[in-house]
Amino acid sequence: MQLLVLPRIRYADGRAPPNLGAGGVMGREAAGLNLHGEAMLDAVFEHLYNAMVITDADFDGGPFFQRCNPAFCAMTGYTEEELIGQSPRILQGPETDRKVIDELERKIRAGEFFEGSTINYRKDGLSYVVQWNISPVRDADGAIVAYVSIQQDITARLAAERERSLLAEALNAATDPVIVMDKNFIIVFANNAFGREVGRPVDDILGHSAFELRPRTAEGLAEPQIRRVLAEGSPYHGVVSFEAPTGKRLHVDLSISSLIGYHDPNGHYVAIAPNITHMVEQQMVLQEMANMDALTGLLNRRSGQIALEIELQKAAESGAPISVAMGDIDHFKRINDRLGHAVGDDVLRSVAGSLRDGLRRNDVAIRWGGEEFLVFLPNTPLDDAVPLTERIRNHVATTPQIASDSVTMSFGVGQWRPGESVAAFVERIDAAMYEAKSGGRDRVVSSP
């Protein structure tokens, strides 16, 4: 039979409580007391981290405190001597929840276990929130002779919970998307702005990998770079894009920082992703305007030369053939002199449209300068490039002009030779084009 030892239980006037022997052992005579067990339980009681208190079962003005451990005294600000023989009501005050106290009294009178929380008051008058449970103690005959209560001051915990709740409310009120991820990049928190951004309810987002959105940078998928940067202990920052459920590609200014060092031993990441789609689209428009020839809508020479260098580099790495055609409008100076520059501009726009119409999906047309145009044809050997250029030449020649006679073009076309510089390649094609002009115009000459 397990014994409950209650050393030093006394009323304030020195009387022993009912059903307790002078030695303080329930269910046995004092003569049968195991002194070693009593001392051990007394030490446990004294050193228990949580506040513990024992009251009698006297409801005639009570119950009354019989034992209070040091943790309980520290929580309430009273000494044990000040508490012994007093009713727990001395800890109650104006903000103590009367309904909780009534429920407590009903349950302990009925011999039931109680658990609850309310506001109590220290000796110095300061309030605190107590969470406690109370269990009845019965003697060998089953009669309730005392109550044991374990208590905890949860004021700081509730304040922290309120702060976390306030933080969550603040994050949800923020207009920028915010998520918190664990060390495996599983989303454990997402604010409402993030849910709106990705077009999904927040509850559907939690528990999923942040990389399910497949964020991309200009170099490709962003995941490898994000993982590498964060693994090095650095924060990540960059512009990434992902496809929303609507099919629209969104661009965000993504910042990810580790929370390790902020009382987070498990390792979490916080990501903030303001939507900058409108800004990126504006920049793209401006970049396109800088790259495009305003009159014809084709790439201008500067951006076209960069594009050509990139294509030749791709061809060098892959071994795929690439051909380039250069065309010049025949007698363009005569058109300008006879019909005026406005008509000349119309002709340039018309020729640019004919070039676009004759191109395949991956072909690129450039206004190289004045009335000269460059067309490069990726993955195309010279044998295929010549008939393609002939088709473009014929399309230009058969396109009706608004204010001028029919317009023709002379073309030179050639296939790039591995190791050939861009300048040498363009010069070789240019020479073929002038050969076409000197040979009667409105024709294609190839440079093998």
From TrEMBL:
Residues 112-166 form the PAC domain. InterPro entries: Biofilm_reg_signaling, GGDEF_dom, Nucleotide_cyclase, PAC, PAS, PAS-assoc_C, PAS-like_dom_sf, PAS_4. PROSITE patterns: GGDEF, PAC, PAS. CDD domains: GGDEF, PAS. Residues 320-448 form the GGDEF domain. Pfam families: GGDEF, PAS_4, PAS_9. Residues 37-111, 163-233 form the PAS domain. This is Diguanylate cyclase with PAS/PAC sensor. It comes from Mycolicibacterium vanbaalenii (strain DSM 7251 / JCM 13017 / BCRC 16820 / KCTC 9966 / NRRL B-24157 / PYR-1).
